[in-house]
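Q: Give me the 3D complex with calcium ion.
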Amino acid sequence: MLGLRRFVGWIWRECRLPFSLWALGLWSVGSSATAQEFQTASSPTFDKWMYPFEFGTGGTRPVAPTFASFDPRFDTRDAQFLMGWKTESWVQVGLPASRYILSKVRLSVSVSADQTFIYDPTFDSYRTYLETNEIAWTRDEDGGRPVEIFGTGFRNGLTAEIYASESPYGPVGGFTSDTISVGTRNAFAAVYDTQGSLIDTSNHVGQRNANWTNAPFEAVPWAVGLTGQATPGALVPVNSIFTFDLDLSDPLIAGYLGRALSAGTLDLVLSSLSPAQQVTPGGTGFGGLGSYPQWSTRENLLFNGPLLEVEGTVIRDTDSDADGLPDDWERLFFGDLSAAGTGDADGDGLLNQEEFIAGTDPRSVKSAFRLTLGGPPLQTELSFQFAPGRRYVVEQSEDLFRWIRAAGQLSYPSRGVGLWKADVQPASSLFYRVRVDEIR
Ligand SMILES: [Ca+2]
Ligand SMILES: [Ca+2]
Ligand SMILES: [Ca+2]
Ligand SMILES: [Ca+2]
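A: Here is the predicted complex, encoded as structure tokens.
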């Protein structure tokens, strides 16, 4: 009798603060300085043109074109532009990713060649890049292709911490094979999938190659480049500045940035699926030589190289009034240290200390860590608001005493929504709780 089964949602608002570790002496006591805001404008520590035939010049050349190839031997995002920053001079490193609360992350990059591509300030669906005879194909209604910013993924043993200007593009050799660059490059433009994993978006519009069998998928960039120096649909003049404001309202993107600041290394990839040839499936190439932009790198002597502006607030561990709320967090949300960890300033039933841990706004009833229980027959679905830089663990119990980790799958189907799904046994009655932790 499915209709009689009853599932009760339960929230485990984990209160094991890092401060308890701190009290044991594992954390050094910081200064009580009041300035927790930070602001920086920085050139990349290194930048690199990522193209299979760059033959060692990728890190030193003054110009980085971005374009697509629809040749099945190459990644569709054939030429990408990687930029990396060491961040330790901007803000203290080593805090949990959740402690870097960002208000602005803006990249500015200048165009180093005159009128080589059409300005498109809006996202183009992957469907507009497919072959016109494919069912999912739709026409690209606006001229040109947007310039896009993505996160950076690494493979072949490389990581953001060790990757540098002289690091190899990909595995050595293979230039005569069919696998020159399909899904092999060491650093690549990446997005989060709905499981919260960072995945390669170099071939998301489809790749007719046995080495890349993924179906096409939508990959929404973290920012689209805008300029005031060209009109949409028109050619872009040399020295135009494109700005990219990263979408900080997406907790997955904010989490990526928080982890980068925690680790002290931030990498971003600039990319555009601009046609490198006249004939582009579903595309809007013009003329006969392709239509793609060229960007000034930090080595460029004529034009300004890339610049990244980052503004935010960092929440350090110091809790001078010992109420379980870091001073910086109290000041950010309340302006002073008068709030108490056990208070509930917005009356939403979540203590200020719980809102700190869950990454919710202690001044807003609408912002709270709550579970919603639902799902079709024989399935349980738990959904909740999720915040950047945190880990969520679902547990279940039959009696509210003995808890075990629940078998199910957590996903992030839409912005800011965590959704956990599991099959359930008929005639059982279970309690669930979700624990949220900062990621150290
Ligand atoms: Ca377009
Ligand atoms: Ca405090
Ligand atoms: Ca509250
Ligand atoms: Ca709240």
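A quick observation: Residues 59 and 167 are 9 Å apart (CA to CA).
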